[in-house]
Amino acid sequence: LPVPIVEGYQNLKEQIEMSQKTHEFQTEAKELLNLMIHSLYSHREIFLRELISNASDAIDKLKYEAITNTDLAYKEENLEIRLIPDQQKRTLTIRDTGIGMTQEEVIENIGRIARSGTKEFLKKRQELKDSPELIGQFGVGFYSAFMVADKVTLHTQKVGTQEGVLWESDANGTYTIDQSPRPEGHGTTITLHLKEPSKDEDETSQDFTEQFTLRGLVKKYSDFIAHPIKLNVTREEEKDGKKEFIVEDETLNSQKALWLRAASEISKEEYAQFYQHISHDWSEPLKTVHFKAEGVIEFTSLLYIPSQKPFNYDYRDFKRGLQLYVKRVFIMDECEELIPPYLRFMKGLIDSSDLTLNVSREMLQKDHQAARMRKAVTNKIFGSLKEMLQNQREDYVKFWNLFGPTLKEAIPTDPAVKDKVQDLLLFRSSHSNESTTLKEYVERMKPDQKSIYFLTGDSLDQLKQSPYLEQIYAKGYEVIFMTDHIDEWVGTQLGEYDGKKLLSASSEDLELESEEEKKSKEEEKKADEQRLKPLLENLQSALEENVREIKLSDRLTESPVCLVSASTGPSAHMERMMEAMGQKLPPMKRVLEINSKHPLFESMLGLSPEKQKEWAEVLYDQALLNEGGTVSNPQRFAKKMSDIMISASKSFQ
Ligand code: ADP
Q1: What is the model's pTM?
Q2: What pLDDT, on the 0 to 100 scale, is given for residue 352?
Q3: Any residues with Cβ below 6 Å from ligand 1, and which?
Q4: How far apart are CA 436 and CA 452, in angstroms?
Q5: Distance separating alpha carbons of residues 138 and 547, to the nearest angstrom
Q6: Which of 156, 223, 390, 632 has the fewest CB atoms within 10 Å distance of its CB?
C-alpha cells in the first residue's frame, strides 16, 4: 500500500501511524464547518461564549463526578477558566481545569456536530447555504471556534487518567489525533490560531488577542459563569519616575449568579443591586419575585416590578422582555417570548436548563419550552401580585397606579388568564376615595342588587356627577368609575364577575327594578305617555336623524334627558375614543330618555309644534353634554340658548 511521504517522519512505521491518526470529519460536520469558515461573518464573537460555556460545563462535571468518585481529588482553588492571548503568534488559548476527555470522547464529541443539531441541520442545509447567519440556531458549540480560527488545537486529559490527547484540525475535512501527556493534568486547552480578518467582513473586526476585547466579551456574555475566568493583564505603573510593567491575574467575570442562590441567603441590598444592574434604574424595585420551576420544565427566574416607570415606557422604542440565560450563560436580552405584553413592565431574567445555548429568537417563537416558561412566569407573577394585594395594599396601589392600565390589557387580549386577572383589578367607585376590587364591590352589594354597575368616561369628577347614575344612586347601589382608555374594553370583556353581570350605567336596560316594581309603575308610565304623547311624537320627528327612539326614563330623577346605548352596542365613550384614534364607528342611533317628572316637559306641552322642534335640538345637545360629549354645532347651540333666555326673560318682566 503506498503511503504518502510526510515531511519530518523518518521511517515507514511512523508514517503509517501518522496516517492512522488522521480522521475524516463526518459529512455533515464537514459541511457545517465549511459554511462557518467561508460564509459566516456576523456574530463571530460568540465563539468565546461557546468555548467558555463548554469549559464551565467541564468544571461542573468534574465537581459532580467527584461527589460520587472519591478518587477524583481536585483543588477547589485550581478550578478556573483561563484566557491566554498571544499577540505575536496571533493565538488565543482557552484553558480549563475541568473533567477533560478521553480519546474516544474526543472523537465522539468533537468529530461530529452536536447531536441535537444534526437532524435539524440536515433538514435546513439549503436554507443555511443561502443565509448562513442562521447557523447559530444549531448546536454548533465547539465548531464556532472555526469562525475566528483557521487552525484549532485541543489538548485534553481526562481526570483520573495519565494520557493526554492532542487533537488538531485546520478544518479542511480531516483532523489528527495523537497521544501527548498534558503537563497541567486534567482539563482541556483549546488554542485558536486566529484568522486574518478578511476584507469582506461586514462587522468591524475585533482583535481577540486584546485584553480590552476579551474583558468586554466576558462581561457581555459570561459574567455570571460560576467559575472564575482569568486573564493575565499587564498594567503600567510609575515608580520613582520610572515606568514599570506589572503583570497580574485578573478575574474578568463577577461570577455572581445571584439567581441560583437560595432566596433566604440573598439580602435585600443584593437583590436591589442586581435589579439596578439589569434595569439601569437607580431606584429600588417595588417587588422581587425569585423562584425555581421544577418538573416538566426546569428554570430559575428572578423578576422585578420597578417602583417607577422607565422613561420610555409609553413610547414605541420601549422594549419589553426578559433576559434569557441558558445554564448561566447569557443568551439574549429583551426576550419577548418569555413574557406576555401585558406584563411588559417586569424586569428580570430566566435561566433555563432545558434550552440549548444556540437558541435563537426564531426558535423561541415556536418553542414549546419557551411557551411553557412564559406560562409559568405569568402565573408566578399573578400569584405574587395577588399576595401583594392581600398583604401590602399600599404597595399594590402604587403598582396599580404605575402599571394597572398595562395589566388590564390582559382582560380583552388573553381570555385564558381572565379568571386570574379580574381579581387583580382595582377601580375607583362611588363607595369611597379608596380603590376597590370587584370582590370587595360584590361584598358590599345590596341584597336586591343584581348587577355590577360601571360607567366609563374621561374624568372621575365628571363621572361622579353623571345623570346616568341618579336612579342607581337613589337605590343606594355602588358604581365603578372607569377612566382609563382601555377600560371600555375591560368593561365589556369582563362580562360578568362572580355570576353578576357588569352593566354600563349608560346602557338601555339597567335592570334596576323588580318585576313587581315594574308592574306597579307601568300604569303610571302609561298615563304619562298618554299625557305627553303629542310632545313625544313631535320630538321624535324633530330628532329622527339623531335618535332611534324617545322613551320615558326610569333612571333619571333630576336631569330632564339623557342618551343611552343598547347594552350590547358600543357606549358613547367608546365611540368618542375610537373617533379620537381615527376610527370612526358607523353612527349608532341611541335612545333619548326623558324624565317625565321633570317640569320642563309640562311647560313644553304648551308650546307650538315649531317651538317644540326648536327646543328638541337643545334637549338633545344637553344630553350630549351631560355624558361628557360635545355638541356638533356649538355656535348654533349657543344661539338657541340665548334665544330661549331672551324669551324666558320676557316672562319675568
Ligand atoms: P454542546 O456543548 O452543545 O454539547 P459542543 O460541540 O460545544 O456541543 O461540544 C460537544 C461536546 O464536547 C460537549 O458536550 C462536551 O462533552 C465536549 N467538550 C467540549 N468542550 C469541552 C471541554 N472544554 N472540556 C470537556 N469536554 C468538552
Answers
A1: 0.63
A2: 93
A3: 50, 54-55, 58, 96, 98-101, 109-110, 114, 139, 141-142, 188
A4: 13
A5: 64
A6: 390
